[in-house]
Recover the amino acids of this structure.
């Protein structure tokens, strides 16, 4: 019987073209898709409390409004505490500037004494850096305003999208089920149910992790005598959502903020606190709370965060893991896509003898076709 299956190189080419077009679509439509993806994740998380209120006799629209209001109150409270710390930090900016200037002078003296470089060369190099920084200031200010306007737009759109998705969630589910034949409806329903379960538990795990990291960091910062314990605790808790890269970013920003203190012991103490909290988070919180919800390996996670950053900037870094979790559920639920699910997973076991035998047979058949 004639084998009508497509050659491997055609399958590979079509896969690469599909991935390229998908990435291009994600990049071009980022301003529309980013708030939609955030809203979808929040909607999935809020479905359970909405269903609970509806079972108690609350109208579905009122239930959605109550859930949204509670979410906005919680977020508003967090933003209020962070803003008060930012205002306090703003008042200490002159002190921070003076301490940074002193550190710059000490660095010049150290380099001059130990590397025998003249003071004039060091001064000219630093002066050139200052001039370049001042020259780039207008573009930085412009990009900052553009970023702020984008954030304000997202803050308006995301709650609206989330509310509407909660309101019309049954309609969306019926649409997805109706888009596939009856033979696949059971598989689609299973994928939707598992996606909802994974995302809801993942977000709940993240909230527990954020709260624990914030409390531990706050206690540590208070012990070492940091003036901005609340600000730094919230900072590391939020940046910790970015896998692997967030802790490094939090450490750098924390050192800059703590530089307003003239006591170097405080700066060292802040770094020690970050290191201890990171060890606790990586070895206890992440595997037990978050890792049990999403089974994605570290390599794919880092690549996903980098790709997300390139496509969507900072929002893409936060959305990378939940999006890959959804893809993992989709790949595991579709027979043709299961190899991609294996690629995203954490199973490090060596292929069985039977699997290696099947792979050798496939390679042999492919080579025979190419020779023909």
């Amino acid at each position: 019987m004639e084998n009508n299956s497509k050659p491997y190189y055609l399958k590979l080419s079509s896969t690469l073209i599909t991935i390229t077009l998908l990435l291009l679509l994600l990049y071009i439509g980022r301003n529309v898709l980013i708030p939609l993806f955030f809203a979808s994740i929040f909607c999935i998380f809020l479905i359970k409390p909405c269903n609970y209120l509806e079972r108690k006799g609350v109208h579905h629209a009122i239930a959605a409004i109550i859930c949204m209001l509670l979410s906005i109150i919680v977020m508003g409270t967090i933003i209020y505490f962070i803003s008060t710390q930012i205002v306090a930090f703003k008042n200490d900016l002159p002190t921070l500037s003076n301490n940074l200037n002193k550190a710059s002078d000490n660095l010049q003296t150290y380099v001059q004494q130990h590397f025998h470089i003249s003071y004039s060369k060091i001064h000219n190099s630093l002066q050139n850096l200052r001039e370049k920084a001042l020259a780039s200031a207008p573009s930085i200010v412009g990009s900052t305003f553009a970023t702020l306007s984008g954030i304000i737009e997202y803050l308006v759109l995301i709650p609206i999208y989330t509310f509407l998705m909660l309101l019309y969630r049954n309609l969306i589910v019926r649409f997805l089920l109706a888009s596939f034949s009856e033979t696949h409806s059971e598989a689609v329903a299973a994928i939707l149910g598992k996606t909802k379960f994974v995302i809801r538990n993942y977000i709940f795990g993240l909230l527990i992790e954020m709260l624990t990291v914030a409390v531990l960091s706050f206690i540590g910062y208070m012990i070492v005598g940091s003036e901005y314990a609340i600000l730094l605790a919230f900072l590391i808790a939020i940046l910790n959502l970015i896998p692997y890269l967030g802790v490094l970013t939090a450490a750098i920003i924390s050192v800059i903020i703590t530089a307003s203190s003239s006591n170097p012991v405080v700066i060292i103490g802040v770094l020690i606190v970050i290191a201890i909290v990171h060890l606790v988070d990586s070895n206890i919180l992440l595997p037990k709370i978050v890792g049990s919800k999403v089974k994605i390996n570290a390599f794919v996670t880092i690549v996903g965060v980098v790709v997300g950053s390139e496509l969507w900037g900072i929002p893409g870094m936060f959305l990378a893991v939940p999006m890959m979790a959804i893809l993992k559920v989709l790949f595991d639920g579709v027979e043709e896509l299961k190899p991609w699910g294996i690629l995203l997973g954490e199973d490090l076991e060596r292929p069985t003898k039977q699997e290696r035998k099947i792979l050798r047979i496939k390679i042999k058949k492919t080579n025979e076709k190419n020779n023909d």
In short: The first helix runs from residue 8 to 28. The two ends are 17 Å apart (CA to CA). The chain has a mean pLDDT of 78. Residues 10-94+134-179 form one domain.
